Amino acid sequence: MDLRRFITLKTVVEEGSFVRASHKLCCTQSTITFHIQQLEQELSIQLFEKIGRRMCLTQAGKNILPYVHEMTRVLEGMRQAAQQDAEPVGELRIAIGETLLAYKMPEVLQRFRIKAPQVRLSLQSLNCYVIRDALLSDEADLGVFYRVGNDAALHMETFGNEPLVLVASPLLDGMDFTRPDQHLPTSFIINEPQCIYRQIFESTLRQRGITLENTIELWSIESIKCISRDLI
Questions:
Q1: In this predicted structure, what is the pLDDT of residue 94?
Q2: Closest by alpha carbon to 2, among 136, 202, 130?
Q3: Spatial CA neighbour of 134 closest among 102, 94, 76
Q4: Are the beta carbons of 7 and 135 closer than 8 angstroms?
């Protein structure tokens, strides 16, 4: 039985709706619904009923709520008690952002392989939002990604902050990206729409009223580097 589903239930009760719970846990509403449905199937009870426009906890849901609070209180203790000195074995499913996998993780993975040779690694390069949802739906054991919100349902460890840098051709030396309300005749080369640093940059442009000539969308960091060198 997945303990994270109980955390989802606790959050829905605390926030008062599936929508607000999804915001609190930084996941999609469909993920919240999936967790609750799976929990209802596992417990063979109905947890919520719709009264008017609100989803209210049923009596059966109220009956198990004290146990849910108790489970979440001891979860951290369970994690600590589960740690053993024996050599780890099994499979570790890791979801990680492409840039982190390419530039930050090779040495880490090499050291992990030396220290835990019996562990079978499964690596997936995914978008930050997809990684978070994969962790919440138990499709990944470990995620390494840029933080995209308050992930209260996840155990988080912060490794540091990464600066966001805009790289441009020396020919664009006269362009001012800080002056508002202007059109800049240049291309923006970036990857997928859900990329967190693309969202930050485009949000900044919108706030400043700045438009660009066009956007070149590539899904590979190496392709972006090659195209950028050719254009420069």
A1: 93
A2: 136
A3: 94
A4: no
Threshold 0.90, pTM exceeds = no
* Measured distance CA(60)–CA(57) in Å, rounded: 8
Q: Tell me which residue has tokens 């392989």.
A: 113
Q: How far apart are CA 64 and CA 70, in angstroms?
A: 10
Q: Concatenated DSSP letters for the chain?
A: --HHHHHHHHHHHHHSSHHHHHHHHTS-HHHHHHHHHHHHHHHTS--EEEETTEEEE-HHHHHHHHHHHHHHHHHHHHHHHT--SSPP-EEEEEEE-HHHHHHTSHHHHHHHHHH-TTEEEEEEE--HHHHHHHHHTTS-SEEE----S--TTS---------------GGGTT--TTSSSEEEEEEEEE--TT-HHHHHHHHHHHHHTEEEEEEEE-S-HHHHHHHHHHH-
CA 191, 195, 200: angle at the middle one, nearest 5? 110
As a whole number of angstroms, the distance between CA 54 and CA 19 comes to 11
Residue 69's Cβ-side half-sphere holds a number of Cα atoms within 13 Å equal to 7
* Residue 110 amino acid letter: Q
Run means of pLDDT, 10 residues per run, the chain, 232 residues: 83 87 86 91 90 84 85 70 67 88 87 89 87 81 80 77 81 84 88 81 91 85 71 54
Please provide residue 99's backbone torsions phi and psi, each rounded to the nearest 5 degrees. Answer: -65, -40
